[in-house]
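Fold description:
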Amino acid sequence: MTEKTLSSQQIYDGRTLKLRVDTVKLPSGRVTNREIVEHGNSIAIVALDTHDNVLLVRQFRKPVEKELLEIPAGGIEAGEEPVAAVKRELREETGYLPQSVERIGGFYLSPGYSTEYLELFLASDLTPEKLAA
């Protein structure tokens, strides 16, 4: 079962996301609107230290007005390969560089309204990034 898109209108174009409203015809023949968040793809990292502890980062998240403990994660920049994004985000958020990166899998975060696809990676053999003198 699919929905036929009758029209699509972008109503917001921000720094991190776009919002559009698609008018669709349902298999039943009924016409309705779908609000869609267009968001770039992202990565998340299960990073293991030498004792197999998972590294977590503490970040304040405005949408939920809370400080959360999370696995390191971030967006994939234009033209960037996912493994490069893993190394960049892990370095930025934890100060560690992985010697081993393995893809675990991927999934759409909230396909009912968002286009964002997240790839999950395992990073191990971590070494602290050397700071410039």
In short: The radius of gyration is 19 Å. Residues 47 and 123 are 5 Å apart (CA to CA). Residues 82-94 form the longest helix (13 residues).
